[in-house]
């Protein structure tokens, strides 16, 4: 009996192809707007802070949708950002996160040239039919952190090591501290950098020498190094962006946490469903975008309960413990 070897091979490969198609989800295609996702960061995703959280948010999207994700680091100049967008477009990316304020204005400028891509930035002013800027309502988290810092300060002297002058959490921290203790001293030094470790540590040493004993380093690349210095001096710190209690619960009183992964996933879900709004969007405690981290056991339990209660009241009413809204504080700052 003659056997047609070529015919058998063809049948075998057809069977294998069908099996692979079934395993790879060749069933009905998922409906939704989202294709692939891109991320641009100013420095590196390994900063243990803001950019690291952006990268984790990107991976969360991939885990949820099974799509391709791409990212580029050290993206600060307009020409290189535009080049990155061109490359992303070739990779079938239609949702791009620019992980910082610097991307908001540029995205507003170039978004019209890429009508099939949705551009998402953070903490800046956004315009354009396919551009969105997400704002963390960070004044409130700074306010509650300031209350904790003032409560725990033995010298009535706090130090804020800020990355940028515009950070709302910096002003909120001072407001909360002075609400807790009217006579407290709040020193602030602005680095004009998210990652200058040497400058931030030098600021810490100056403030510590002047008597500050609780520090709030609000940067990306320098927060952890500063907290390590605080620990060596047996002083206190407030963590930033992530829950940094693992750096030492006798050092980190609490942390102001920005749930970046949650916000990324939320933005992707809205975009996929065709519901992501353009313009400037506000995310805060109520939207689960911001939270306070674990408290140090050194913070009195009664005070911990008070802060938690104050946060719940703020979520319901929009009023901070001093009876004012964030909008009222913003008007005072302008005046």
TrEMBL record:
Which residue intervals make up region (Disordered)?
Answer: 314-335
All residue ranges annotated as the ABC transporter substrate-binding protein PnrA-like domain in the record: 36-322
Specify the domain of life of the species encoding this protein: Bacteria
Topology versus the membrane: Lipid-anchor
Where is there biased composition of kind Basic and acidic residues?
Answer: 326-335
Sorted UniProt keywords? Cell membrane, Lipoprotein, Membrane, Signal
Name where it mostly resides.
membrane
| Localisation | Cell membrane
**Is Signal there in the keyword field?**
yes
What Pfam families does the record point to? Bmp (PF02608)
Which InterPro entries does the record match to this protein? Answer: BMP_lipoprotein (IPR050957), Peripla_BP_I (IPR028082), PnrA-like (IPR003760)
Q: Which family does it belong to?
A: Belongs to the BMP lipoprotein family.
Q: What is this protein called?
A: BMP family ABC transporter substrate-binding protein
- State the organism named in the record: Fictibacillus fluitans
